[in-house]
Every structure is written in structure tokens, then in C-alpha cells.
Amino acid sequence: MANKKLRIFTQEITPRLEYVAGVIFSSVLGIDYEITTDRRKIGSNPAIIYSDEKVKDQFVIRPSGLLSANGVTPLEPSVSFTGELPVLFPADGGSIPFDIFSAAFYMLSRYEEYLPFAPDAHGRFQGIRSLAYRNGFLRLPVVELWSRVLAAALVKYYPVITIRHNQYRSLLTIDVDQPFAYRSRGLLRSMGGLVKGLAGGGARPAERIRTMTGSQADPYDSFEYIEQNIKLHGSEALFFFPTGDQGEYDHNPPYRDHDYGEIIRRYDRMYGSGLHPSYRSAGRPKALRMETERFRHIAGHSPERARQHWLLLNMPGTYQSYTDAGIRFDYTMGFADEPGFRAGIARPFPFYDLSGEKTTGLTIVPFQVMDGTLRQYLHLPPDKALDIIRTLVDTTRKVGGLFVSVWHNTSLTEINGWEGWRKVFEETLSIQKA
Asked: Which domains occur in the chain, in start order?
């Protein structure tokens, strides 16, 4: 019996059930399973009856109806608590007190982000408007915790079931929005900035001159510092680079800039890199494809990874554009205004496209915290920021997940309000170790 699959009996096998079962049993719990509509396949196997049928002496989960539906309709599930654990889609008469499959699907699919919402100034869905934030569980990886509740109940009912122990990992990611403050900005832009500075309306003219003449390092060039700390702490790292045209929110050098190209190739070779699609490219698939081609020209290969600049994530359009552009891994799944678990999970998971009702080939790698969230949105001093990071690392470690943090080369300069944040960076790399 120990080698037999867990059978999940249902009256209808739907794409939504297949998707969420894959995440819970394959990705999180490591349980071999099969979904079936044939009761004869259950036999003496461990089984979950996902049905409203009246059955005796069976492990039962009562369905809410979400997984048998199609499309998106106005829905806000009620939130209740089992002890300190929040649960969605509570249900009576089952072996666990809620429909875990619907709850996990709601979080993973980002169902609420398909519904009308009040966006911020950049058109983004805000963390403070999410169901998780409003009910106090944004900083909990609830899909992982719900899966553990299910696993504990299953093992109690079927002692032969074994659950995989997941190994905690961490990943440092660096968004290089603007690698240089003054270098590689072009002669006209540099001279214009210098004239403005001399007139009292721009940044430090003397510093600009020293940087342009090579007598002083560019103030945004913190790459050697970042590299030293990656090596010191043995961190796994990824760098994200923009290749779009310059604009109001896009301050990267031209993609043909020699020095910028050298930086991209260096860190792509040393750690791995991805595309940082421009602000302008959001909602413009043609611009995204152009930027992926520019990245390929610089790095020598097409980008498989991407994270949206300004976290401009629109469901499902952004991910559909990624698929069309050949991008296979997204690192945008996190909120700009609040730290936590946007999709309720602390590990990579596949994107389910609600508009097409299908599991796609795009993998989402969520992050838990970003430097700008802590200082620029929450206005936290370094010590308070570290408290949040420690909690998120500890929470992720307990479920054997992947802790991902987002940093910028410009936030590790000890200037422009970032004084004291190198300590936060160094402490994060230290406490996030496995």
C-alpha cells in the first residue's frame, strides 16, 4: 500500500482542479496522486472524495463550486479562522473544515486581480487592497500552511502516506534600473544636466564633472560592493537589466552603450540575468519583443527570465505578453506597497490563465520583500525594516520555501536617503542563509 497513489475522486475533472492539485501535491507536498471519476480505481488506495455526496468512512473535502466554474465572476470569499490560521471557502461535513482546493486556487490564480479594482497612480493592484492584507494574512504563505493542514489530516487517516521535506532556499535579486548617475547618459544629456546643476537646479555639478572625467567613481556604481557581499555570504543571485528607450520612468543607458553592455555580460556570466521590461513596454507586446531582442543582442542569448519595471503587473495581459516573447520565468509576483506573499505561496508555481482556463508554461517565482517597499512606501528606518525581513525569512524557512528579496544598485549607495541600508542588505544576506 505504501507505493499506491493517492486517488482524488471527483464527479468532474476540470482544468482548475488539475492545476491546483498539481501545486499542492506535486510542488508542495511531494505526494504521488491521480484524479479520477471512477470509484473503482480507489480500491484500497488512500483517497480524497472531493464531492457533495454522502459517504461514510472516507476522507472528504466539500467543494465550493469554484473549481467547476468557468470565467471570472464577482467573488470575495469569506474569511474565517481555524485557530490562528485563516481559511477561505469554509465548508461543513468534510474531513477538513474548508475547501482547500478552491482556497489555494483563488490565491494562486490571483482571481481578485481579474476583477475591477481601484488602481494606484501606475495602474497597479495594491497590496493594501488585497483580500490577504485586509484580513491580516498577507505575510503568511497560506497555500503552504493549508497544504500542511491537509497533509496532517491525510497522514492521520492514512498513516502510509509520506510527505516530502522541502529544503529552504534563498535568492537575492538585483534590479538595475539605473546603473550610472552620470556616466553613459550621452553628451547632450550630460551637458544639459551639468548646466542645470551649475544653475542650481540639478544634482551636484562638481560630482558630475569628477565622474564624467573619470576622477571619481559614479555614485550609483555599487556593483563591486554587491559582488563582494554575494561572494562573502555565498548567495544565489540574479540581476535584471532594462533595454528599453529612455523616458520619464526609464533611466537606463541606451542599450548599445559599451560600459552598460559589459556590466550585463559580466553578471549574466557570473550569476545569471534577466530582462527588466521598461515602464513604456507595459501593455505593449511589440515593445516587449523589441526589448527582448536587444537583450539577446547584448547577452548573446534570449532572456528566459523577467521582472517588470515598477512591478507593472496586469493579469493576465503581462504574462500573455511574456509567453509570446519567449519568457519562461517571471519574478514580478509581489507588491510594491506591502511585503508578503502576494499569491499566498513561497515557491515557484505555474501561471494559470483564467481568461483561457488553462495552465500555461510560464513559471512564476514570487518575491517577499523589496527595498523600496520598506523605505519609500512604509517609511521604515533600517532597524524596523530588518525586523520585517527576519520575520519573512523565518516564515519562509519554516515551510521549506524560497525566500526572494529585491534590491537595487541605487539603494546600496549610502546616499539620497539610503544611508544605513547597506547594513540591512548585509544582514539580510546573513540571516537568509540556509
From this structure: 6-157 (no CATH), 169-180+220-431 (3.20.20.370)
